[in-house]
Amino acid sequence: SRDTDKTKTLLNNFKRILSLIFVFFLIHLKDKIQDFANFFNKVIDCHDGFLSILFCVSSDLREIVFIIQSQSNTFHVRQAERQKADLLKQAHSLVEEPPVVLLLHTLSHNEGDWSILPLLPHLSQSFGKNSSWIVFLEEETDVKMNTLAGVLATFDRNKEWFLGKHLHDEDSTIIHHYAFAENPSIFKYPDFSAGWALSIPLVVRLGNKVKQEPLKSDFTIDLKHEVALYIWDNGKGPNLTAVPELCTEPKDSPQALLCATTLSNHPTQCGKPVNKDDIFVAVKTCKKFHTERVPVIKKTWEKEALYLEYYSDYADPSIPTINLGVPNTERGHCGKTFAILQRFLSSAVPDTKWLVIVDDDTLINLPRLRALLGCYDPSEPVCLGERYGYGLSQGGYSYITGGGGMVFSREAVLQLLDSGCKCYSNDAPDDMVLGMCLNALNLPVTHSPLFHQARPEDYSKDFLAHQVPISFHKHWNIDPVAVFNKWLKEDFRSNASDGLNKRTKTEL
């Protein structure tokens, strides 16, 4: 029976590959065969045979709802609108009636929409009767619409499907709450960068479930893993089905020929990186880590900072560190962080456009950060980092998780402090308190997957393979200098040059 199953799988894969090749060639003859296709489209079943894929592309496109996982920051809105325009342009060349293309951040005023699950009832109600697929795309995901429609046509739209590119954990990890500790690799979750899709029957069932049973998780940490867990539902729901045509290959790569989705070649390049003197770096430390963690920073990334200060509970002139008058706490550090925000706006430090707050066990590549910040307008209240969520299904808030690094424009710091936002205790969680304040001010938290709250080994290798990461966090059970040299040291993958090594650091 195992041999029979393997044979069936091979035959099915072979059939799909031949189908896609067939579609590829016929699409280039589309104008000549359109009349012929329109005639036979009336009599051919959309889920049976090679020819059916070609003839069903038009109808399938009209039954696909594309949702771009957009953000409300000006740069990201521009990226998403450009992607939407490209999708509609492709659709107009294939069909008279284009598919629905939506921007996630515009669907409602609910802060938690980016976590997808609270949106399922709305998607079920809006598209449950006249659509077949919901396809989610990140802003950097490029789509070959005709190929994608052909791929989706090979799946029975009347069944529950959860489609994507497989990721898995090799070891149990804190960011997934050590799920499947005995064998983490058995659970597959989607790489959002490749796009992922839900069939409408699955959306309808999940939408009803969300309405009847409130979402239980307080924290949203790694959305792609948590969405997969919710859909799987301890084995009651479908597993993720791997679709090889959903790819994270670069758009112009030879390997992308048969891909329905690819990645933009340089998604974070927005022209000239910001200058070194536009960034002020604040490092949070304490006396017990002066000899353990601070030397790692000095060996790795400190030299790329023109303006940098170490903030501690003890003034050590040999580093040097600055005592802000806030006692050290075992966790939280809210008092220290708000003292840093106030100092950033004072005359005690240079007047810069950007504030970067990191822990003393954060590893960061500042040239790559400078390249990324070239995408953002510092006159806007920008709050950038790895986004987490708390209580999003019950009207909660988003926040930047502190370990990966928190980046604020000067305008964001001004609005935060002018609002009267403050800590309820020195050891309150600084990142979460800031998130509550930003939510009250209706200021968005802008997410970048290039910031990482954990170590490289806590993430799927396939996920990191198509990234040029900006930061990692924690020294636990690793050689932090070796990790920096492998993942964050300047090399051929980084394009943030502009004379980065020509200027020397000024230590305040």
UniProtKB/TrEMBL annotation:
SUPFAM superfamilies: Nucleotide-diphospho-sugar transferases
Keywords of this entry: Glycosyltransferase, Membrane, Signal-anchor, Transferase, Transmembrane, Transmembrane helix
Domain of life (superkingdom): Eukaryota
Record localization: Endomembrane system; Membrane
Domain Fringe-like glycosyltransferase: 273-479
Topology of this chain in the membrane: Single-pass membrane protein; Single-pass type II membrane protein
Transmembrane segments: 12-29
Entry similarity comment: Belongs to the glycosyltransferase 31 family.
Designated name of the protein: Beta-1,3-glucosyltransferase-like
Organism taxonomic ancestry: Eukaryota, Metazoa, Chordata, Craniata, Vertebrata
The encoding gene: b3glcta
